[in-house]
Amino acid sequence: MSIDTDTARRVAKLARIQVPEADLPELANEFSAILGFIEQLNEVDIEGIEPMTSVTPQRLKRRTDVVTDGNQPQAVLKNAPDAREGFFAVPKVVE
């Protein structure tokens, strides 16, 4: 797939990147090279191959999913502008 300078200009505008007019042909060539590489990757047969998280097989460490208060309520509430009875106090918005 080939990208022309108008498409490169449009992509730069959408990305909110200011690209000088003289650099647009080079940017278009880079975009074309990237899309060519993606097309090469799409040609690889990956049928039956499981996704990997790393090149070395490893199991992720797991912990039990237990809800706790963090055992630090005073440390958390000391940053609050207003705390009452162990909770954050906020202004009333509904009457």
Feature tags:
single chain, 95 residues, mainly alpha, flat, ATP-binding, nucleotide-binding, Asp/Glu-ADT_sf_sub_c, protein biosynthesis
In short:
It comes from Octadecabacter dasysiphoniae. The protein has 3 helices and 2 strands.
Describe the protein.
The longest helix is centred in the middle third of the chain and has 19 residues, at 24-42. This protein has a domain at 5-42. The chain has a two-stranded antiparallel sheet. The model has no long low-confidence stretch (mean pLDDT 89). The protein is mainly α and 95 residues long. It has helices spanning 5-14, 24-42, 73-77; strands at residues 83-84, 87-88.
**Approximate strand percentage:** under 5%
The CA-CA distance between the termini, in Å, is 61 Å
Q: State the order of secondary-structure elements, H for helix, E for strand.
A: HHHEE
Strand order of the largest sheet: 1-2
Q: Average pLDDT value?
A: 89
What coarse outline follows from CA principal-axis ratios? flat
Helix content percent band: 25-40%
Radius of gyration based on Cα positions: 27 Å
Number of strand elements: 2
**Broad structural category:** mainly alpha
Largest sheet: 2 strands, antiparallel
Number of helices: 3
Q: Detail the poorly predicted runs.
A: none
SSE layout:
Layout lengths: L4 H10 L9 H19 L30 H5 L5 E2 L2 E2 L7
Antiparallel strand pairs: 1-2
Helix pairs in contact: 1-2
